[in-house]
Amino acid sequence: MAIPESSVIWFDGALVPWHEARVHVLSHALHYGTGVLEGTRVFATADGPAVFRLPEHLARLDRSARMLRMELPYSAEELAAATVALVAANGHRECYLRHLAFLGYGSMGLDMRHSPTSVSIASWEWPAYLPEGRGLRLMTSSWRRTDPNSVPPAAKATGPYLNSALARREATDSGFDEALLLAPDGTVSECSSENVFTVRDGVLRTTPASAGALEGITQDTLLTLARDLGAEVRIEPLLRSDLYAADEVFISGTAAGVVPVGSLDNRELPSHEGELTKQLAQAYRAAVHGEDARYRHWLTPVHRSPAHSS
């Protein structure tokens, strides 16, 4: 999927033209995967564009960096202000945001201590990340998540995404939409970049971080919404057969949103969009667009410049 270009990117403290946001070919992160990232969304609301759960995304970026022993050269407040300024400068009503902190040019070899940390924020208008209008077709990947003691799953780091890329390529080459990855012990972990939920007998279940799944911010959002809807919620290990036997299965992520699953490994599910899935998708849409007052604290407004206010 080609990226629709925007005007500027925030790079190490300044807004620079899109094509001038460049790094050296000997940057440490390019060779060793020493980077951390966040994907965040901006949604249109009645009061203008707003970033959804920006403080939580920036807090996770900082946690991920600390796990890799990288020190961010900007505070959360500075990065929040830069994010809002970038969205305003690009004139977006809705967009996807990519925060990235990485070790740049300074030294080679596995020793991380002598490479400076760079930070960038990019925004672009990215429509649906996964197919819409039908139940998603999943396959269980032959690739598995790594042991949590090898790479910390709580760190949203660039290097481990090779595992996701290989799994996603395997799935799409086989005619599926997305890959389901298992943990080393055979329990369900997550999809290539989304958390997994099941519904059976009205109980909502999702996998824990101990299965190698990222603790998703959209996942947390949906757990909150489900509890507020009165649903029983459990975070517990799931077997692949639990998905086969579920009444409903859906996945969630910042890029994907809430996407119902129609089949797994060519096994059709009873409904590609069950009742609780529909309720949660509706509640999520209302929250991100500022239509439910209970969740407006999750929104960081973007005050657009006069040139983009029409």
From TrEMBL:
<dbReference type="InterPro" id="IPR050571">
    <property type="entry name" value="Class-IV_PLP-Dep_Aminotrnsfr"/>
</dbReference>
<dbReference type="GO" id="GO:0052654">
    <property type="term" value="F:L-leucine-2-oxoglutarate transaminase activity"/>
</dbReference>
<comment type="function">
    <text>Acts on leucine, isoleucine and valine.</text>
</comment>
<dbReference type="InterPro" id="IPR043132">
    <property type="entry name" value="BCAT-like_C"/>
</dbReference>
<keyword id="KW-0032">Aminotransferase</keyword>
<comment type="pathway">
    <text>Amino-acid biosynthesis; L-valine biosynthesis; L-valine from pyruvate: step 4/4.</text>
</comment>
<dbReference type="GO" id="GO:0009099">
    <property type="term" value="P:L-valine biosynthetic process"/>
</dbReference>
<dbReference type="InterPro" id="IPR043131">
    <property type="entry name" value="BCAT-like_N"/>
</dbReference>
<dbReference type="InterPro" id="IPR036038">
    <property type="entry name" value="Aminotransferase-like"/>
</dbReference>
<comment type="similarity">
    <text>Belongs to the class-IV pyridoxal-phosphate-dependent aminotransferase family.</text>
</comment>
<dbReference type="GO" id="GO:0009097">
    <property type="term" value="P:isoleucine biosynthetic process"/>
</dbReference>
<dbReference type="InterPro" id="IPR001544">
    <property type="entry name" value="Aminotrans_IV"/>
</dbReference>
<dbReference type="GO" id="GO:0052655">
    <property type="term" value="F:L-valine-2-oxoglutarate transaminase activity"/>
</dbReference>
<dbReference type="GO" id="GO:0009098">
    <property type="term" value="P:L-leucine biosynthetic process"/>
</dbReference>
<dbReference type="Pfam" id="PF01063">
    <property type="entry name" value="Aminotran_4"/>
</dbReference>
<keyword id="KW-0808">Transferase</keyword>
<keyword id="KW-0663">Pyridoxal phosphate</keyword>
<protein>
    <recommendedName>
        <fullName>Branched-chain-amino-acid aminotransferase</fullName>
        <ecNumber>2.6.1.42</ecNumber>
    </recommendedName>
</protein>
<comment type="pathway">
    <text>Amino-acid biosynthesis; L-leucine biosynthesis; L-leucine from 3-methyl-2-oxobutanoate: step 4/4.</text>
</comment>
<keyword id="KW-0100">Branched-chain amino acid biosynthesis</keyword>
<keyword id="KW-0028">Amino-acid biosynthesis</keyword>
<dbReference type="InterPro" id="IPR005785">
    <property type="entry name" value="B_amino_transI"/>
</dbReference>
<dbReference type="GO" id="GO:0052656">
    <property type="term" value="F:L-isoleucine-2-oxoglutarate transaminase activity"/>
</dbReference>
